[in-house]
Write a structure and sequence with these properties.
heterodimer, A: alpha+beta, 10-stranded antiparallel sheet, 6-stranded antiparallel sheet, 22% helix, globular, B: alpha+beta, elongated
Chain lengths: 611, 72
């Protein structure tokens, strides 16, 4: 049965993250200010009222600060009794007088503390919660939950089964938008709920042994095109984020985009066995009486009311089920297997471009296919490595919790570069009589289907026009569940000269990293695998190697414990590897093959852990 | 000349917004203008509001209600 589930979450944050800085302008900092506490609680009450008026239950994520506030506690208990709201515990909203006195810090992001502090804070908060409510919570969360933190919580407080665990593509782009002052660096995760592995939160568990024991949900449901390119905090199921993006009519205060976003998420049930999901989680600072940027309070309040009203309407029409986080975790465990992927064929609903992306996520990879670039893979995260990546003070990554990429078209160029070097992308080129055309320049659309455990993207055929030859080519991309590979098939449907021979070059330009800036490529090993295999140890020397009939062409990247390889369907293909150079710190893997009319040639991109 | 403050609403710099930067502006009451600390934009409230409308040029489908999300 088709099901569209929504989680609506509120937190009584007594000192909202933005409020003290933004609304308190001109006053010295005082986080115990009575007016601030009163206003914060009023906003929480308003949010609860709006949800309930629309027939929606919520998950109340109590903050540490709110556990010291009797009124907040009583409100939570009353709404739990009356509406069935879940009383949960957030790891956001740490700042308050009690926290600052004990921990002597202004840090407020749980994943950035030292492991010792994480444990101590978790124990403090969970103990306080138990003291107040008489039970331990079933749900928790933050903007990001690192694996060590989740593992500790699950071991010590096994009642926890659900957590808000990442914000999709909130990384360098969000940092940049905030004038390089907002350190939420966690790109590379799933956009919809998943079961995190014990090794790395972003990488879903492949089996019970890897299962962290919780169901993770993303912070907000975000636009899978707009957020990938722009500021994540403008394009999500957070009505005030839509205002932040100025995606509304300033005269009528209407924002059809918000409803389009919700509806496109509903539509994703087609690709996920009848299941679709939304999450709305608006912190109180977004509804403060002084307004937020250009938006006055009345517009902030209206947008939240409208958002809840739309979910409420869908519920009344039988098109939506509202759940608490804990209820959702149970539902998800029953509905999903470890290896079932999350799929999203997503269209542009904002810029009027008809651009289309396909996002795929399973325990072995997250990949993005761009139909505006002929079905090129423009983002690739090798979850197969299940990279252990501790974050927080005392680790190598104090703030950077992103899962590393092999391909990222925005950070590391993609097809278009500025006249030198190469950018990361997995595509193909066709050559004929000295002319060369890259499929990245062939805009097309895709259609989704399933055959057994394989998800298939069938792209509309494209014409490649040479001076005296036209080739009609169709691409099919296969994602076989649990295989840790992507098969790309090129079908030559027609040639204007059936006798012509064209060279097809299937290639992948890659590197590794989490940001726009290059990493050290020394230590990477490139190989043409086969009887007379060849190897290049990366030294920025621009070397190349090739091998006819190569069994595989591969790269081992020790820094991210990943092996990526390509294999081909035809022994007649020539495998090759290319080292980059300092101005183009990339490597290339590929196969070339001469192809004829009606021929089909397939290659696989394979991901493995290398350690 | 007195220090700057914030206006009744907390306007962001329209020029920086165009390059995906959220920068709060400050208000100079002597000149009756908002100004950006990061770039060189200055303008009164009317100008800010006009530029905020201009910003929306890229949202060509902003007013459209979609009912179909695939191309099948």
């Amino acid at each position: 049965m088709d099901k569209f589930v929504v989680n609506i979450i509120h937190r009584p944050e007594m000192v909202p993250e933005y409020a003290e800085k933004v609304t308190g302008h001109g006053k010295a900092e005082d986080i115990g200010r009575k007016a601030l506490l009163t206003e914060s609680l009023d906003i929480f009450k308003t949010q609860q009222r709006i949800a309930h008026e629309n027939g929606l239950k919520t998950t109340i994520q109590m903050t540490y600060a709110s556990l010291f506030n009797e009124e907040a506690v009583e409100l939570a208990k009353a709404d739990h009794e009356k509406y069935g709201d879940e009383i949960a515990l957030s790891l956001l909203g740490l700042p308050c007088k009690e926290f600052r006195e004990k921990y002597k810090t202004k840090d407020f992001c749980i994943w950035m503390f030292s492991m010792e502090d994480k444990k101590s804070i978790v124990d403090d908060i969970f103990a306080k919660f138990h003291e107040i409510f008489g039970f331990y919570p079933e749900s928790t969360g933050s903007y990001y939950m690192d694996a060590d933190l989740t593992n500790y919580i699950k071991e010590k407080y096994p009642s926890v089964k659900c957590a808000v665990a990442t914000c999709w593509e909130e990384g360098p782009k969000a940092y940049h938008t905030c004038n390089n002052s907002w350190y939420t660096l966690f790109d590379g995760g799933p956009w919809n709920p998943w079961i995190p592995s014990k090794q790395n939160t972003h990488a879903p568990a492949a089996n019970e042994a890897e299962d962290s024991g919780i169901v993770a949900i993303p912070h907000l449901s975000r636009d899978l095109i707009a957020c990938y390119d722009g500021n994540g905090s403008n394009f999500g199921t957070h009505p005030q984020n839509v205002l932040r993006g100025m995606i509304y009519d300033s005269k009528t205060w209407e924002y059809p985009y918000l409803y389009n976003l919700i509806d496109q998420y509903r539509d994703l049930e087609k690709y996920n066995n009848g299941y679709a999901y939304n999450m709305m989680f608006v912190g109180p600072a977004w509804m403060n009486k002084m307004g937020r940027w250009e938006a006055p309070y009345e517009l902030l309040e209206k947008s939240y009311s409208d958002g809840c009203a739309y979910y409420g309407k869908l519920k009344k029409e039988g098109k939506l089920v509202d759940m608490t986080m804990a209820e959702f975790a149970d539902y998800y465990r029953e509905k999903k297997s470890y290896t079932e992927p999350e799929c999203a064929l997503w269209r542009d609903i904002l810029y009027g471009s008809d651009k289309q992306l396909f996002w795929y996520c399973d325990p072995y990879m997250r990949a993005c296919v761009n139909m505006d670039q002929g079905g090129a893979i423009v983002d690739l995260r090798p979850y197969a490595a299940k990279l252990e990546w501790p974050v927080g003070i005392g680790t190598k990554h104090v703030q950077d919790a992103s899962y590393p990429f092999l391909i990222q078209e925005k950070y590391r160029a993609g097809y278009f570069t500025h006249y030198a070097g190469e950018g990361t992308v997995r595509s193909a080129k066709l050559s004929y009589n000295g002319e060369e055309v890259d499929l990245c320049l062939c805009r097309t659309k895709a259609h989704f289907s399933e055959e057994g455990k394989t998800r298939i993207l069938t792209l509309d055929p494209v014409d490649i026009e040479f001076y005296d030859l036209t080739v009609k080519l169709q691409t099919k991309i296969y994602f076989e569940e649990g295989s840790s590979n992507i098969k790309i098939e090129r079908n030559i449907l027609e040639m204007s000269n059936p006798e012509a021979k064209v060279e097809l070059n299937e290639y992948m330009v890659a590197c590794y990293g989490t940001t726009e800036y290059p990493e050290d490529m020394m230590g990477i090993t490139l190989k043409c695998e086969g009887a007379s295999g060849q190897e290049i140890n990366y030294e920025y020397k621009c070397r190349e190697a090739e091998l006819a009939g190569a069994e595989a062409v591969s790269a081992v990247i020790p820094a991210i414990e990943t092996k990526v390889s390509m294999t081909a369907s035809d022994k007649a293909a020539v495998g090759y590897v290319k080292e980059g150079y300092a101005f183009s710190p990339m490597f290339t893997l590929g196969y070339t093959k001469t192809i004829s009319d009606k021929e089909v040639f397939a290659t696989w991109l394979n991901l493995e852990k290398a350690n | 000349m007195a220090q700057s403050g914030k206006g009744k609403l907390n306007y962001r710099c329209p020029s920086c917004f165009m390059r995906d930067l959220d920068i709060d502006m400050f208000y100079d009451k002597d000149k009756d203008e908002f100004y950006c600390m990061r770039c060189q934009y200055t303008g009164n409230e009317k100008d800010v509001l006009e530029k905020n409308e201009m910003i929306r040029f890229r949202y060509r489908a902003m007013d459209k209600r979609f009912t179909k999300f695939d191309f099948d």
